[in-house]
Prior knowledge:
By secondary structure, this protein is mainly α. The protein contains 13 helices and two strands; from the N terminus they run ααααααααααββααα. Strands 1-2 form a two-stranded antiparallel sheet. The longest helix is centred in the middle third of the chain and has 29 residues, at 133-161. The radius of gyration is 21 Å and the shape is globular.
Amino acid sequence: MTKKSVDTATAWFGALCFFLSAVEYMIPKPLPFLRLGLANLPIMLAVEVLPLPAFLALTSVKVLGQGLIGGTLFSYIFVFSAAGSLSSALVMWGLKKALRRHVSWIGVGVAGAFASNAAQLGLAGVWIFGQSAWYIAPPFVAVGVVTGALLGGFANAYAARSAWYAEIRAGTFSPPDPAPDSASDPGRIRSERALRGAVGGLLLLTLLFIPPLWAKALTALAGVALVISDGKRIHWVPTVVMGAGIVFFNLFTPFGRVLASPLGLPITGGALRSGIEKALAVEGMLFISRWMLRYGLNLPGRAGALVSSAFAALDRLTAERGRFNPRDPVASLDDLMYGRGKGPR
């Protein structure tokens, strides 16, 4: 593949990552970093197509795009996503290259999910749950193994049946260049980015380094108010479920005065306060990050160009999303990647 075809394939794989990330973002989850891993499908398929530098660039584009789409770029969640995605990608790449035809995509998917889970659980133990991370490890790993196997099974079917993927492997896929208009941002947009960066930065520092619980609560509420002032919709069910999950799992490391003991579980003042503080910090960072990213980022260099091209390709996928038929996901994804039904039938 030529450099241009590699960049084009990377951008379209990245766009598919973003598309699947947006689908997954709408699914409520009890833990802030728990993911089904739908966006790993393009990463898995890219193992056989892209050279290692482009493959690592795709992984970086996926992580950055997920942060931009979900509004998590300036939050703990971005660090979890980066650690999990990089660990998973490297393990899947190494396993597939070492064993080639001796391992199926199911095995690759399970190994990648396990690597991602291990990295994220390690970070969860350090930053959010402490020793309670051991309590969430078994179900978290079990969910990862199941979703990794299911995703690997779909990757097997897609790699075998997809006309688009066959063209990518043969180096003959040549869609219109998805690069966006290169016109510079208007001065108002640049000023707005700078203002949001400064205000958001101060709010994030307050969340991280100002100890009183009331300060964290007010800062998190300020993040909510800023998002609402932008006219953005807040999905309250995922927000409440995520916050409750953080508080609940922190109760498994009791300290301080016992407040109650329902079903034999001691609820202590120290653990409850710690859980609320962490929930406010995580949720607040999500809202503040989402507000800061309303006008996106202006990224320099080749990485910036790849991200911009991937988002331009995402616009085309989104415009054609009505063509997706869950009864035939392989053909539907092909339709999306070709655009407007121009692919072979």
